[in-house]
Amino acid sequence: MELESVSVRADFQGHGRRVSSVAFSPDGRFALSGSLDRTLRLWDVATGQAVRAFEGHKSDVNAVAFAGGGRSILSAAGEVIGGEKVLRLWDTASGSTLRDFEGHDAEVSAIAVHEGRGLVASGSADASVRLWSLATGQCSQTLKGHGGWIRSVSFTPDGSRVLSGSLDKSVKVWDVASGECLRTLEGHTENVYSVVALPDGRRALSGSRDRAMRLWNLETGVCLKVIQGHADVVRSVAIGKDPRWALSGSEDKSVQIWDLEAGRSVWSATASGLVLAVAFSADSRFALAATYDRHVLLYEVKWR
Length: 304
Hints:
Helix content is 0%, strand content 58%. It has strands at 3-13, 19-24, 30-35, 40-44, 50-54, 61-67, 72-77, 86-91, 97-102, 108-114, 119-124, 128-133, 139-144, 150-155, 161-166, 170-175, 181-186, 192-197, 203-208, 212-217, 223-228, 234-239, 245-250, 254-259, 264-270, 275-280, 286-291, 295-303.
């Protein structure tokens, strides 16, 4: 699998404030965005048209994710002072609220879903990770150990572990069954904004305010590679179906695709604003980038 070309397919516009999070539906037909305008928006990938807006949050929407095979949507909301401090589950087809997940003591800033286990992980400014039942909304575990705001969470493919990236500069690996912290990955010199488990389940990639990405061995905790090339904060990292290729977004206004084996960028584009979030579709044929100046960019990625 080699990269052939990348082109802009659409520029989704409609949010009134910066866009904080993006995600693809499992089948790749829809894109989802969340914004500090307190709304979520669903977009049709094929037509580039808006499908619907999800309204009802009283605080910034910090993270979004699909659940239930795309039939439902999760959003994380809250603000530093006040706000809801909630996760909300929505019905994708109707836009109605199904339930709220409440328990965090501060704004919720990160979401991950593991469909096979029916679990949701959330990260918060209260420095905890919580595990929830998707079916009932009940919290099954509260994972504590970080010394700062948690900005990113990610399940390993088998759902046995959950990763968390924090403003305390570390990534932690947690055992889902016991709630035990298995290891702490240290090496970043500034806040960790994003972490994602690779499809092989043995490695993870993190992005930081120190402008670097780090590739980790989850079994040993060893940093396998430090990947540099961004000129400012790395706000978001994503992995597609092939663990060789990574996507990143930065406050240097660039979106980049990286060859993790070589540790180098193979494609880069400049957006009109700071890039705050990125996502790959499950088949890696499309990518999303969310910007500070309210754009959601859809890229078509061709491989050979």
